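Researcher: Going back to the complex we discussed earlier. I've cleaned up the inputs and rechecked each line, so this should be the final set. Can you rerun the prediction on the complete assembly and write out the structure?
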Amino acid sequence: MKLLDTMKRNKLPSAVALAYVLLFAFKTDTAFAAVKNSAFYLKEMMIILPVIYMLTTVIDVLVPREAVIKNFGENSGMKGNVLALALGSVSAGPVYAAFPIAKMLLQRGASISNIVILLGAWAVIKIPMLANEARFLGPKFMVARWVLTVISIFIMGQIVQVFVKRDDMPLPEPDAEGTRTGEGKKNQPAR
Amino acid sequence: MDAFTIGLWSGSLLLMAAAFIKSRPKTFAAMKKSKKIMGNMLGDFIAIIFMIGLILTLVPPEAIRTFLGSSNTEIATVAAALAGSVTLIPGFLAFPLVGSLVNAGASIVPAVAFLTTLTMVGIITYPLESSEFGARFAILRNALGFVFAIAIALAMGVIL
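Model: Rerun complete. Updated structure for the full complex:
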């Protein structure tokens, strides 16, 4: 029963583990190839994870709550949007690596629109990637797609802000000292 | 490690040093807090990575070509946008692939739809996003990403 509980709490890891077990049993070659393909991403993750850990920590220590509210909060306006875009653009690693940082900022009072912009920029705008795109598809293609994407991310931020409220999110109580951050996940009833 | 990653590492280390100088106890408390936030996600991170490996093996990037090269642009665009949503192919694989297709004369609309949903929509990361930010947020963000990716693709078709 305990195993079942653990599996229920970790649906995705359990599902993937099961897929691999089956694959190893029936198509061993494919399973090995998949592990080999995963290794590259695992390495990419390992390199960037400590950075995410440090940045999440640093935000908590060095950036006062008031500063987050002022620069990324509901009333930060266009300045907040541009700042979120800039922060997301000087990033590395996959978008899910941004989740801890986004969550920390959200807990410290960042607005939902700015979180959407941060995640969008993190996913789409990477300087090495833009260079790559220009190389293979031409600078004109790259610039046009970049401009359209930035506009889209900004509009998406505004739309999500309208329809999603803080109460819809599994966040712990506002950042008081000693809050048990991250517990929200387990306490939130499934929607 | 590329220069960009080294820069991020150096910057983060400097900021950590600054945090320690500002307040050691506060930094230790924050480290604990970050560990908790990330600890919840780590299992999913690893699962996502192995899922990417699995998908790349079962659906090699070359297979995406069939979607993108189809002569029916409307169907190709939607199929390409869907393919981009379920896969997480890194840019250094996706750009040359799409580049070679476009240079060979394929329509850029499906190509752009694919490239854009690749980064803007994440079906694989949805479970994690949903548990961390709530289902409403995750569904809306990804659905809008899909719609906007198609809009961007159509606009690019007009512009270029």
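Model: Worth noting: Chain B has a mean pLDDT of 89.
Researcher: Good, that matches what I expected from the previous run.
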